[in-house]
From TrEMBL, chain A:
PANTHER family the UniProt entry points to: GLYCOSYLPHOSPHATIDYLINOSITOL ANCHOR ATTACHMENT 1 PROTEIN
UniProt keyword terms in alphabetical order: Membrane, Transmembrane, Transmembrane helix
Listed name of the protein: GPI transamidase component family protein / Gaa1-like family protein
Membrane-spanning residues: 29-55, 453-476, 505-523, 574-602, 623-644, 676-696
Source organism superkingdom: Eukaryota
Annotated signal peptide: none
Pfam families with a match to the protein in the record: Gaa1 (PF04114)
GO cellular component, one term: GPI-anchor transamidase complex
From TrEMBL, chain B:
Native species: Arabidopsis thaliana x Arabidopsis arenosa
Protein name: GPI transamidase component PIG-T
Signal peptide: 1-24
Entry-linked InterPro entries: PIG-T
Pfam family, one: Gpi16
Length: 699, 646
């Protein structure tokens, strides 16, 4: 009990004779942070941006985490006989093409015949080319909620061919999928090569005895894009409609009855061959991002990368933002980091975090692309369709270094491509359980380097950390100023002051929600409209809605008289809280979106302050602040940011058609069910509007 | 020692006397072996080993047997097994290419892993106990984890959907069981000659397990003698079915591969097992080639049967039997010897193609849906090409109908919603009563028993496809039911589709066949096919979660109780007053200094005054405090007790 007394004793603080109870350390820390929030917010935000820039330095080398995979430990069994089978198929298809112009289905039959000759079961599947339709309620629903369109025209439908090799001694519970998108009508020579590689492999797999999982080879009809046929096939595989479909009546051959399946999918590889490699070696690009920034297990990428680099000698790369490679400011950063790294190495030889500036540039360009693709939430290839069914999948795009008609090189190319796939399949085949060992949340900075979630979270956490601090400090300020300004005791309900501001914030978020749903109704407007027209329609309806809101609810408007208007500090505090909540929620759904969103939204929210007092005071500091907030707000407007990022990515000039492009971009976002669309409509836009309200606040 | 020897001699004499009695009577223990070879349309060869061991109903032996394995007879006597079948299978039977409408496939196409069913001759109440004991006994006998079938969550009691109509039938299967040579060895031990002599000597392990399909089966049934004194006899049937791929050297891809016993198994037969009654090798050729040679009957042309333009056998068959669509060449291995081993071979000269008879409907089963929450099981029945030719249709009320029984077991973690059963016939949804004649459902109980569904469908003969779908929710396993490592998923055992109106039999016209293999073919066997085993990925919890939960709970508890105690104990007003009074007494600066020095010294501040009253107060307070802590802890313990103990 004496100890308790001592505690009490210690809590006494006597600075000027009048004792005061000293609050707990955590509370003191909080108060300290809130009191110095401007300094801390600057420090934290800067640290957040710096941490983001440091990420390429912190990337770790990838390693194969699951021991059962054992990539490359078995000798390849692929022989020249298998490759000649593949070459024969390519030759046959080419000859067939020459003789029969534009008869796509016949090519499919040819491929089907090849499959059955190799001892595989095969089946055809028809699908509708158009699938993705925006529906507001389908956003987070599963992939099986496709509604079949009525009145399908028989003129356009695609036909997939799928062949299945049953594992000789396997139990047929699991399968591995190989996909080659192929345009049956006007597929180029490069596309033929992808068929050649996989058919070489298929010929081998039909003979081997080590298979424990069935192998499915899907030749997807890429006339209507790469993604749609794969998605249609997967839908048929996982959730077939047993009812009679209109499409089946279209053709003489009935393809419905013989759709074949083979167990739960363990992994999927999409192989594409296109373009000639600019490098000396054959180039292999890996695409992994699926919808909403979901990534396949890192082990799958590791296995492919390991086999491609160490066994087959491909030059492996992942997408990068090319324009960043030549940016001078990033180069300066790289050089600084390199110098710091060298210095650290001099001080202590164990500190080896420095990397050369060129590597830094490459890493950040790749990271930027990784962030961008994840943030966009649109799959970067047909592998995205598999992710909807929790199947790990990647797209491999191979660019040979020879022209497609070179026969001599073709053999070697088939051999190496098929061996790469064989090794990968063999590794996945070894797996006794699902992919679980390695990372699912990561970003790539090169094919063999990654940043795991624990590291890249830091940047975001630092970036959003100032928000609650500033919100609290503003709230306290606002309360103080309110108590000072109003002497009416009845109005002085201290704890309910934020309610007015919250009302305004809520109204604008509701407005954001309505604006998010508007495109659906605009799409329902009869008649053909160009994207520009539609975007204008959207813009006008949204702004008129905004005006109506301002008129009907004067509390919300920044132009209302001071009587109705709330205190701007409290409004800003609530806005920042809302932004904080929105960003944190988004970081769970799609981290990359939240990261980029935080980069935009956090400075805007922090800098936003009424412009009128600044102009009135004419002090340089406040004028500068006002100017900054105006600039940030301009950049923060979604359309504006879209234009700027387009310019950054080096994609053409920004013209009058901007609205149309923006509309198309958004349309693609919702068509792919990207959560980024929801983020823009329901978090970013309302917060931006609120910042605008603060900017024009009359106080 | 001498007395022991004497008693042993006496025993031997008695035994030989008994054996003499046994031989003297009509009913003797019989053992017969047979091997059926059959080329398959997809360039593979099927080898079917068939061993039959009969112990006649007799009381003369007592507990002793001449040929019959003692382990099995003890099993039958102890658990009063009326009929039992145990199969170990690896690989899948290819119904399209290997046939689905002959006795061979309907009896030997088994689901992957272990399947066991048994009918008991005990009162209803003891059936489950007998089953449990039987699984343990078999588990020890065959070196397999059959004992997992003991748990009531893994077996079911089918009433009519499985086949034998009995309420004393239990059925269970283990799809995950890996079948290996350690299961084959005990199985071979039941044979009188093991694999040392006779046909079973062919079972070279590497070649047997290299095959595409491998199923070892043990079927035993008791034969009632009718007489009370004699008891019952036992018929033990052991079969091993393997599908092998002969090594091909020919370049032509459409040519059937030629093979011989030695190329298939790497061994040859050097004479029969001396204990067998009959020992035959059969070669069955079916399909197209049979039709061509249909009208040959004379001796000279019979020669043509085994040596013609299309193919050639390396040995002359003893006899040739004909069935409607196939030929059976019979060889006797008696003539073979060490110097001249029996090595039958088949050499193809012309490319030939034929197809097997198929079951009326081809069944496949798959899972629908995605995600970890719910899904659906769908069974797709598709009409096969050979359906028109089939007999056994039920022509009631002028309608031609096919009857199909579907029997499925659902593990309890697959929570099936039976009301969601949907049947689509030719892509039209039907109301249940149209095609569904009979249904028997026993829902599963969580962690106690598995669910079972038996359905009888009556389909029109011209049906093209039937789809049956039923939805389910995935359950959560108890923490110790998960496999220790990350897992692949959980299995749903195969469903069984049987066609009660279709019976497969091979009737070789000549009546001589005393061979047990042929007579078993002659019996009408129910056409049945097993579907695929399904793999359900269940939600696997993060097993580091308990650690996280413990940390979070501890933190929350600490915060909660800390603040609760603060609220209960501290009186802020009092403290403030106390501090104020104290502050007046001592100068602020002085106290600060003393505090700092105390901190530096690491010693408590010396109390200057009024040390008695707080101490007295504190003792009261502390007893209260302790009482409160005990109260709270008691409440927590009680809550814990009541919340967990259910």
């Amino acid at each position: 009990m004496a100890a308790v007394n001592r505690d009490n004793e210690e809590e006494v603080k006597t600075d000027d004779g009048s004792p005061k109870i000293k609050p707990r350390p955590i509370v003191r820390l909080g108060i300290f942070l809130i009191a110095h929030s401007p300094v801390f917010s600057v420090v934290f935000s800067a640290a957040g941006v710096l941490a983001l820039l440091l990420l390429p330095l912190l990337a770790k080398n990838t390693y194969i985490s699951e021991n059962a995979l054992m990539p490359g430990s078995a000798r390849s069994m692929l022989s020249n006989r298998d490759v000649s089978d593949g070459s024969k198929l390519v030759k046959d298809i080419k000859n067939f093409r020459l003789n029969h112009e534009g008869q796509g289905v016949e090519v499919q039959k040819l491929i089907g015949k090849y499959m059955s000759d190799m001892g595989a079961e095969f089946s055809y599947q028809k699908f509708h080319p158009e699938g993705n339709q925006f529906h507001p309620l389908h956003f987070f629903s599963g992939p099986d909620s496709y509604t079949l369109l009525e009145n399908v025209s028989c003129a356009s439908y695609g036909v997939n061919v799928a062949g299945i090799i049953r594992a000789p001694r396997g139990d047929g519970k699991e399968s591995i999928v190989l996909v080659t998108p192929y345009d049956f009508i006007n597929g180029g020579d490069y596309e033929d090569l992808s068929l050649g590689i996989v058919s070489s492999l298929f010929s081998l797999l039909s003979r081997v005895t080590w298979l424990s999982k069935d192998i499915i080879w899907l030749v997807a009809d890429s006339r209507y894009g790469d993604y749609r046929p794969v998605a249609a096939w997967l839908t048929e595989y996982h959730s077939p409609s047993f009812k009679v479909s209109d499409l089946l009546k279209c053709d003489e051959q009935n393809t419905a009855d013989n759709f074949r399946r083979a167990g739960t999918m363990a992994a999927a590889l999409v192989l594409k061959v296109d373009g000639r490699s600019e490098k000396f070696e054959d180039t292999l690009s890996i695409f992994a991002e699926a919808s909403n920034g979901q990534m396949p297990n890192l082990d799958l990428i590791n296995v492919v990368n390991y086999l491609a680099v160490h066994r087959q000698g491909f030059y492996v790369k992942v997408e990068k933002v090319v324009s960043l490679l030549s940016s001078s400011w990033l180069k300066i950063f790289g050089e600084i980091f390199e110098a710091v790294g060298k210095l650290a190495h001099m001080l202590n030889p164990d500190w080896n975090f420095g990397i050369p500036a060129a590597d830094y540039l490459e890493g950040s360009a790749t990271l930027a692309s990784s962030l961008y693709s994840q943030a966009l939430g649109i799959p970067t290839g047909p592998h995205g369709a598999f992710r909807d069914y929790q199947v790990d999948a990647i797209t491999l795009k191979v660019s040979p270094r020879f022209p497609p008609d070179s026969k001599t090189r073709q053999h070697d190319f088939f051999l190496r491509g098929a061996r790469l796939l064989e090794g990968t399949i063999r590794s996945v085949n070894n797996l006794l359980e699902k992919f679980h060992q390695s990372f699912f949340l990561y970003m790539l900075t090169s094919p063999s380097k990654f940043i795991s979630v624990g590291v890249y979270m830091i940047a975001f956490a630092l970036l959003v950390a100032p928000l609650p601090m500033v919100a609290a400090s503003l709230y306290i300020d606002g309360c103080k100023s309110l108590t000072n300004s109003t002497h009416n005791p009845t109005e002085n309900f201290k704890s309910w002051k934020w309610l007015d501001a919250a009302k305004q914030v809520f109204t604008l978020h509701l407005l954001g929600f309505i604006v998010t749903l508007l495109p659906y109704f605009i799409c329902q407007v009869p008649g053909q409209h160009s994207p520009t027209n539609r975007s204008i329609m959207w813009g006008t309806t949204s702004s008129s809605l905004l005006l109506i809101t301002f008129v009907t609810m004067p509390g919300c408007s920044p132009f209302s008289s001071r009587l109705h208007g709330t205190n701007w500090a409290i409004l800003k505090s609530v806005t920042i809280s809302a932004a904080f909540i929105g960003l944190c929620l988004m970081s769970i759904i799609n981290f990359a979106t939240a990261e980029i969103g935080a980069l935009l939204l956090v400075p805007t929210c922090l800098m936003a302050q009424p412009i009128k007092p600044a102009l009135r005071s004419r002090r340089l500091k406040s004028l500068l602040g006002a100017f900054c907030s105006i600039v940030l707000l301009t950049i923060g407007f979604p359309v504006m940011f879209f234009a700027i990022s387009k310019g950054l990515l080096g994609e053409g000039l920004v013209g009058l058609s901007l609205g149309g492009e923006f509309w198309t971009w958004l349309e693609s976002l919702w068509a792919w069910k990207s959560a980024t669309y929801l983020y823009i409509g329901m978090v970013h836009l309302p917060c931006w509007l609120l910042c605008l309200c603060i900017l024009f606040h009359p106080s | 020692m001498a007395s022991l020897l004497r008693s042993l001699i006496l025993l031997l004499i008695v035994q030989s006397f008994l054996v003499a009695i046994a031989f003297g009577s009509n009913e003797v223990e019989e053992f017969s072996e047979a091997l059926l070879l059959k080329p398959l349309p997809d360039r593979k060869v099927l080898a079917h080993f068939h061993f039959e061991n009969r112990a006649p109903p007799s009381n003369s032996h007592g507990r002793h047997h001449h040929l019959f394995p003692k382990a099995i007879s003890q099993l039958v006597q102890k658990f009063r097994v009326k009929e039992m079948e145990l199969s170990f299978t690896q690989g899948r039977w290819n119904h399209e290419h290997w046939g689905g409408f002959d006795p061979l496939s309907s009896m030997n196409a088994k689901p992957v892993g272990v399947e066991l069913w048994a009918v008991f001759d005990v009162p209803q109440s003891q059936v489950d106990t007998s089953w449990k004991n039987l699984t343990h006994a078999l588990s020890g006998l065959f070196c397999a984890s059959i004992n997992f079938l003991e748990s009531s969550t893994s077996y079911a009691a089918p009433t009519w959907g499985f086949g034998p109509n009995s309420n004393k039938l239990r059925y269970g299967s283990l799809p995950r069981e890996a079948v290996c040579t350690e299961n084959l060895t005990p199985w071979l031990k039941l044979l009188p000659c093991r694999d040392k002599d006779g046909i079973s000597a062919l079972m070279n392990r590497p070649s047997v397990y290299r095959g595409f399909y491998h199923s070892q089966r043990l079927h035993l049934s008791t034969v009632e003698s009718g007489q009370e004194v004699l008891g019952s006899g036992i018929v033990l049937e052991q079969t091993l079915t393997v599908v092998l791929q002969p090594e091909t050297t020919s370049v032509e891809s459409n040519m059937q591969p030629s093979w011989s016993l030695s190329s298939l198994f790497g061994r040859k037969v050097v004479g029969r097992c001396v204990l067998t009654k009959s020992s035959n090798v059969y070669l069955q050729l079916e399909g197209l080639l049979g039709h061509e040679l249909k009208n040959v009957d004379t001796e000279i042309e019979a020669h043509e049967l085994w040596k013609n333009a299309e193919f050639e056998l390396s040995l002359k068959p003893e006899r040739v039997l004909r069935e409607s669509s196939s030929f059976l060449f019979i060889f006797d291995i008696d003539k073979s010897s060490d110097s001249e081993p029996f090595d039958i071979g088949l050499t193809w000269k012309l490319p030939s193609k034929w197809s097997c008879q198929q079951a009326p409907l081809h069944a496949s089963r798959f899972l629908m849906g995605s995600g970890n929450e719910r899904g659906a099981i769908a069974i797709l029945l598709k009409a096969t090409e050979s359906q028109e030719k089939l007999s056994g249709r039920d022509l009631t009320n002028g309608h031609c109908t096919i009857k199909a029984n579907i029997f499925q077991i659902f593990p309890w973690y697959i929570k099936v919603y039976y009301h969601t059963l949907q049947i689509f016939v030719d892509q039209q949804q039907t109301t249940d009563s149209e095609v569904l004649k009979k249904i028997n459902v026993s829902p599963s109980t969580d962690k106690v028993s598995s669910g079972m569904m038996e359905m009888m469908l009556e389909l029109p003969c011209e049906v093209k496809s039937v789809a049956i779908s039923i939805e389910y929710d995935k359950g959560f396993l108890h923490i110790d039911e998960y496999p220790p490592d990350a897992n692949q998923g959980f299995d749903i055992p195969s469903a069984l589709i049987s066609f009660p109106n279709h019976h497969a039999s091979l009737d070789f016209q000549e009546e001589l066949s005393k061979s047990p293999l042929l007579s078993s073919f002659k019996e009408n066997s129910l056409v049945r096919s097993y579907t695929e085993v399904l793999l359900v990925p269940l939600t696997t919890p993060d097993f580091s979660m308990p650690y996280n939960v413990i940390t979070i709970t501890c933190t929350i508890f600490a915060l909660y109780f800390g603040s609760l105690l603060n609220v209960l104990r501290r009186r802020i007003g009092e403290e403030e007053r106390f501090l104020k009074s104290q502050g007046k007494k001592t100068g602020g600066l002085k106290q600060l200094l003393s505090r700092i020095t105390a901190k530096i010294r690491g010693r408590p501040i010396e109390e200057q005054s009024s040390s008695e009253s707080p101490a007295a107060q504190s003792s009261v307070l502390s007893s209260k405090l302790i009482f409160k802590i005990i109260l709270v802890a008691g409440a927590a313990a009680a809550w814990q007790y009541f919340s967990t103990d259910k």
